[in-house]
Structures are given as C-alpha cells and as structure tokens.
Amino acid sequence: MKAAWLLLLAASLACAQPVPDTLAQRAQACTGCHGKEGRAAPDGYYPRLAGKPAGYLYNQLLNFRDGRRDYGLMSELIAPLSDAYLKELAGHFASLDLPYPPPQPTTLPAAELARAEQLIRRGDAGRKLPACAACHGERLTGAQPVVPGLLGLSRDYLNGQLGAWRSGQRRAQSPDCMAQIARALTDTEINAITQFLASRPLPADTHPVAALPAPAPVACAGMAP
After folding, report:
1. What are the DSSP calls for 108-169, one per residue?
2. Band of pLDDT at residue 9, cut at 50, 70 and 90
3. Which range marks the domain in which residue 129 is found?
4. Predicted TM-score (pTM) above 0.85
C-alpha cells in the first residue's frame, strides 16, 4: 500500500505543470479578497480593482504600505514591495476590462434620493461642498490618472470609506480633500448618497474619462486645484 502511494505521488509530481512566473499569476494573491481577476468579491465590501485608473490604484497601495490607510492584511501583504513593483501591479489591474455587478435596490424615498443626486451633481456652495461629479466625472466613472469611479460599488463599501475618512482611519497625502468633504456631510446625507450611487446602473461607457473638462474645485493630492 505504501509503495503504491509513493508511486502515485511520484506520478503526480511528474505530471504537475510549472507555475508561470507572470504578473497575472502573482496578482492572484489579491483575488482572494477582491475577487477573480480583480472583480469585486460577492460580499461587496472589498472594492473592485479592474479598470480603475492606474494612478489611483498605485496611490492606494502606497497609502496602505506607508500607513495612511489602515487595514492590517493589506499593509502586511504589500509592506516588502517596492514602488516600482506596486506601480506595475496597479497597471495590471487597471488594464482589466470586466463586467460590473448589477445595481443594488434602494430603500429611500424619492425626496431623499433627489437630495443626494443634487449633492452629487451640483454640490452645496453655501457649505463649500463640491459636487462629486466635478472630480469623479459627469458619468461618475472616474477620471485619469488618479480619480476612481463611484458606480458599481456596494453601499457597505462606500459607507465604510466615508466613515474612515471622517474618523481619520483613511487618509491621503495632503491636501486630503475627501476627508474634508466627508466631515462636512451629515450621517443622513452619507446614507442617501451611498444608496443613490449603489443603485445607479453603469453607463454604456464604464471607463474613466481621459481628463476632467475643468480644474478640480478643491485642492486634492495628485490633482490640480
């Protein structure tokens, strides 16, 4: 019996195919949480990586590695990686073009959704709140090279990130415009905004725009004011 088991093991090892040493193969370490090929995992909390601007992905990897974003598993995973390798990894996921999950249904009344859309599309000048669309693009699919899209993400993830900015758990290099914006929003507004965004279907063109039509309305790290 032992001899037969050893023969079977030897045959298995002989037939085993070598694992290719490619970036796509190494990037599979990311897909345990973020989903196959960087598409968001079923629970919706881990964000989609596929198709986001490479500059944004690179900045977030640096933020996790250098302590501006706080999630132990991510920080430990990328702690030994160089800037050059992180940039290469970001470029890999940015190059993927995969379908998005369906929108989530919303439970809010129409009046609250309308208020959320007003903030997203036009902001609130009296409170110095810029419109989300002014930086994330009219289609809300992001803008090259560093601004992510807001659609195709779950309410849980969006709520989690806005909450992290408000508490200081998530930070960016100065000036950290999103921290300022998140702290200016009320809990009710955040709930309405995230429900609105998560319930919106993706436009026909889901890619980030090449450039914003006007300068960003607030000073933000990596973007011209």
Report:
1. S-HHHHHHHHHHHHH-BGGGTB--HHHHH-TTSS-BTTTB---TT--HHHHHHHHHHHHHTS
2. very low
3. 104-225
4. yes
- Is residue 162 in a domain? yes
Report the alpha-carbon distance of residue 204 to residue 143 in Å, rounded. Answer: 16
Burial of 15 per CB tally in 10 Å (0-12, 13-18, 19+): exposed
Closest CA to 90 of 129, 64, 126, 121: 64
Whole-number mean pLDDT of the chain? 89
- Within 8 A by CB and 6+ apart from 106, the residues are 113, 195, 196, 198, 199
- Single out the residue in 75, 99, 123 at which a domain terminates: 99
212, 224 Cβ separation under 8 angstroms: no
Using alpha carbons, select from 64, 50, 102, 89 the residue that is nearest to residue 208: 50
DSSP single-letter state for residue 57: H
Q: Which phi and psi angles does 3 have, rounded to 5°?
A: -65, -40
